[in-house]
Each structure stands twice: as C-alpha cells, then as structure tokens.
Amino acid sequence: MSVQIWTYLFVFLTFGLYIGIAVWSRAGSTNDFYVAGSGVHPIANGMATAADWMSAASFISMAGLISFLGRDGTFYLMGWTGGYVLLALLLAPYLRKFGKFTVPDFIGDRYYSRTARLIAVFCAITISFVYVCGQMQGAGIVFSRFLEVDITTGVVIGMAIVFFYAVLGGMKGITYTQVAQYCVLIFAFMVPAIFISIMMTGHAVPQIGFGAELTEAFGGGYLLDRLDGLSQELGFAVYTEGQRSTQDVFFITAALMFGTAGLPHVIIRFFTVPNVRDARKSAGYALIFIAILYTTAPAVAAFARTNLMNTVNNIEYSMVPEWFSKWETTNLIVFDDKNGDGRIQYLGDPGANELNVNRDIMVLANPEIAGLPNWVVALVAAGGLAAALSTAAGLLLVISTSVAHDFLKRTFMPQITEKQELLYARGAIFFAVLVAGYFGIHPPAYVAQVVAFAFGLAAASFFPAIVLGIFDKRMNRQGAICGMIAGFTFTALYIAYFRFINPAADNAGSWWFGISPEGIGTLGTLVNLAIAYPVSKLTSAPPQEVQEIVENIRLPGEVAVR
User: Fold this and answer.
1) Higher model confidence: residue 56 or residue 192?
2) What is the CATH classification number for the domain harbouring 224?
3) Does residue 559 fall inside a structural domain?
4) Beta-bridge partners for 525
C-alpha cells in the first residue's frame, strides 16, 4: 500500500481510539474535568505526563534542529530534561501537598491576593497560547504532507479533533487519551530509529549506533566523524562543534529548565493522582518514559542529516526521489536553481546554496530518505500527530481552567454553579482552539523555537514565584506581584522586539549580552528575583497563617492545605 493509504489507516485507527477513550471517560463534574477525580494510577499518570510533556517540539522539531545545529541544538535536550528533573524533585510534591491544582490558584492563595491571582491567570493563558500554537503548527505539517492537504486544512483538522476530546473528556478524558498517545508516539519514534541504526551501523540500539562506525555502504568510519567531514566538505560548520556563544547556550538551557518547572500544563498533572507519594512516583515514571525518546533524539538527528547530505547533494533535479517531490508540494523543501545547471547544490554558503529545508520535517522525512517501508513512514506521521495533539489538549485545559476556575469562579463570579463553570470552561477551550489555529497557520518560527518562547515566559514569571512561595515563608504578595510583572514584561518585550518589531536585528551582534530571544527567559528570571526579594523585605510580612502553611507543606505527610 502507498504511504497515503497507510497514513489514512493509522490516523483513522488512532483518532478513533482517542475519541473512544474520550467518550468512555467523559467528565461529569468539575473534579473530573480539572484533575480527573485525583484517581489516576502513578504509572498511567507517568505516561500521560510524558505525552503531555513531549510535544510536537520534542517529537518533530527537536531532532530536526539538532540535525542542523549540531552541538548547539543540544541545549533543547539538556534544558528540557534537566527542567523536568527540577520540577519533579523541587516543586511537584510541595505543590501537590498545597492542594491547589492550578498555578494561579497556588499563587492567589499563597500570596493572599486577588491581584496576584489575576496576574498569574494572564501569564498562564499567554504562555499556554504561545505553546499551543507550536502544537497546531506541528499537526498542520504532518497533515499537509501525509494526507496531501494544505497546511491550513491540516491545522483545521487538528483543531477539530483536539477540541472534541478536550471538551468532552476534560482532564479525565485527556489523561487516558494521553496514555494511548504516549504508546503511539514512542513506538512511532523508536521503530524507524532502530531500523535506520541497523541499516547504517549494524546496531539495533540507536544510542549505541550514534557512537558507532558506519557500514561500508555508508562510507565507513565513525558516524560523527563522517558527519563532521561531510559538513566541512559542503561548507557547513563542523557538526560536533558549536557556533553559538557559551553564554547564549547557558542562558537558553537555563531558560528551558526554569520554564519547565513553571509550565502550568505539566504542574497540573501531579494533581490527578491520589496523594503526594503517588505524585513522586508518577514523576519518576514520567522521567523514565521521557528518557526513552530524549536519549534517542541525538542519534535520529545525526542519521537524518547524514542521509540528507548523501541523498540530495549534487544530483540532477529531474532525478530526485519521490519523497523530495512530495515534500516540495508543502513548500517545506524549496529548490532554487541559482546557477541554472539543473543540479541541486546543497552548500553551507548562503549565496551558493540552492536547497532550503525546513528543520521541522527532518524527523518526518527521515524514514522516507532512508528508504524504509511505507508503513513505517505512516507510523511516524501518526506519532507526530499524537505528540502534537496530546500537548495541545493539556494546554487547552490550562486555558479553560484559568478562565473558568481562576478568573470567574474564584475571582469575579463565585456564585456560579458547577454546571455553569463547566460550560464556561468548554467555551474557553473553543476560543483557545481558534486562536491557536490561526497562529498554527501563521507561525512566527520553527515549532521548537515557538515553544522555547513559552518556556522563557514561564521561567520569567512563574518559576521565581513558585520557588520563593515554597521555600521562603517571608515572601509576600508585594514581592511576588512586582517580580512577576517585571520578569514577564521584560521577557515578552525582548522576544517581541527581535522576532516581530525588528526581526532584521535578530542576530548575535544586536542581542543584549549576546543572549538570543530563546534564552532571554533566564535573564527575565533574574529580573524577577532581583525585584521580588528586596520588595518583600521592604514591605510587611505575610500573615501568620500563610507562613504556617508554607512551613506545613515542607513537612512529611499527606495532609493537603486547602
């Protein structure tokens, strides 16, 4: 069967599974809708957390960026994995014991302030919108290639599916759907990685193949040495050496770490289990499930870049393989015959390079480039959709809870019934899907870069407020409010200036201290801390009962603070 038929088959089966789970586990109460009744098993929650965490950025874009950036691209790998460890060990158990299942809820109660809650609601909605746009973009890319529709149609299909099971099932439906999506995406990522590793190195374990010698069919020698040589021959930077400054790599990595620890859609997952002990267990399981993909990504990146260089450089355009022509129709691969010789010159010199490849297609195109069976190619498409839609659903739920629970129920409309609250939550999801779809069709950057902006905003706003709220009982509402406003505003303006207002200045020569927009969240975090801490010391201490709550959540035990 053709790739398209296989893709239709896999998409039909997997989407049918997701919708069936949503119908089976549909939410009947706000507790089901927001936190799945707090009755999810730690292993299931670990899988759901991993699927929620490993978005289109992880599945589709991360390995693609590493394949082009080489060593520089590993800050995504280090930042996201390190950030999850930071979240699991430093924050999740304490937040679970505090007993508030949204970040704005925690900040509003911990800092005894409606203003703090509203600022947190605004930050949570903005961060989630930025993040979910990347997921819709990823879904559009997959649909556009493998169902042979335009990206706009692909995004609309993704919007419809995720809206259906997010609205119907809430967190309960999303959780069990994400368990299925994790199984799909990890199988889809690992199968081609194993096949290609065997083909290129003779090793079935991609992590071993990454450091092994290539077979004679691929020129022999160690994979990374071969890739370095190919890169230099074509005028690209040496793959295993970086071009970014050390401080920019550090700041991006730190921003991704701090942002991970402040992401609302990940934090809320630790409230779907019965108690604090299970929250710790599910965090550990999730880390194992995440590591399977993240330790494989560098190998996939190296395999994909090697295959691309060997396949398309200096060949007659009339002789390009079928996969190349298919991706050309999406405008994600563009050939510009600058010298008119009819041959593709894939070179590191921008003035002579005739091939433009969108980084986000590398993982999806890799099985086709390597000549794997059609069913494997279609499987990867289904995995990419699972990754994009699982995270999109979690983010949409954060937006809905921020609007219905934190903004309306807890602030301006405390009299509304549970039924009305659910209605407002589902309406918020509808609006959020429309906005996310628009930016998925008109993306500001590659998927992983868009997601990195969300992490920077989360780092600059939530991370200091949460950490100080847990570990410094003297931190008060004045400090938290001033810090969040300063950190978020600084980071948002920096990103907006270099990406939208003056994109021509988006280069290392114009960045402050050589820090890129992807890494500015770290400086935003420092701005937040530099303002929040002294302001708290210069103003009155929190009420005694708040200080006792902070003391209590750091003591062993399962008693939640309400």
Assistant:
1) 192
2) 1.20.1730.10
3) no
4) none
Q: For residues 274 and 228, give the distance between their C-alpha atoms in angstroms, rounded to a whole number.
A: 50
Domain assignment of residue 219, given as a range? 3-553
Q: For tokens 């810090």, what's the residue?
A: 483
Helix (H/G/I), strand (E/B), else coil: 235: coil
* Token duo for residue 267: 């934090």
Q: Helices 520-538 & 246-261, crossing angle to 10 degrees? A: 60
What lies within 8 Å, CB to CB, of 425 at 6+ separation is 30, 33, 170, 400, 401, 403, 404, 405
pLDDT tens for 347-402 read 888 888 888 888 888 888 889 888 888 899 888 888 887 777 777 777 777 777 77
Which tens digits make up the pLDDT trace of 309-325?
888 888 888 888 888 88
User: Phi, psi at residue 511, to the nearest 5°?
Assistant: -65, 145
| DSSP-assigned letter for residue 542 | P
> 15-27 burial, b if ≥16 CB within 10 A, otherwise e?
bebbbebbeebbb
> Would 562 be classed as within a structural domain?
no
- 186's CB contacts (< 8 A; 6+ apart) are 289, 292, 293, 383
Q: For residue 105, what are the CA distances in angstroms to 294, 307, 325?
A: 32, 49, 51
Give the H or E element holding residue 179. helix 151-201
The pair of structure tokens assigned to 419 is 């039924």
DSSP reduced 3-state for 204: coil
> Per the domain annotation, does 516 fall within a domain?
yes
CA–CA gap between residue 398 and residue 547 (Å, rounded): 28
What whole-number distance in Å separates Cα of residue 88 and Cα of residue 552?
19
* Whole-number Cα distances in Å, 376 to 216, 365, 373: 24, 11, 6
- Which H helix or E strand runs over 333? strand 333-335
Helix, strand or coil for residue 343?
A: strand
Say if 561 falls within a structural domain: no
Inter-residue contact 483 to 535 (CB < 8 Å): yes
Q: Which residue has the tokens 């590591």?
A: 291
Q: What is the count of structural domains for the chain? A: 1
Assign 518 to helix, strand or coil.
coil
Structure confidence by residue, pLDDT tens digits, 259-297: 887 777 777 777 777 777 787 788 888 888 988 998 999
Tokens of 510: 């114009």
CB atoms within 10 A of CB 434: 11
Which tokens in the block code for residue 109? 């109660």
Evaluate whether 264 touches 124 at the Cβ level (below 8 Å).
yes
Closest CA to 52 of 300, 241, 283, 327: 283
Residues 6+ apart with CB under 8 A from 420: none
Please calculate the CA angle 417-418-419 and round it to the nearest 5 degrees.
90
Q: Hey, which residues does 493 pair with through a beta bridge? A: none
Scan for tokens 């002294």, then name that residue: 534
Q: What are phi and psi of 239, to 5 degrees?
A: -60, -40
195 — pLDDT class (breaks 50, 70, 90): very high
Enumerate the H helices of 39-101 as residue ranges: 42-53, 56, 63-69, 74-86, 92-98
Output the six-digit token pair for 322.
Answer: 């079928």
Rg for the chain, CA atoms, rounded: 23
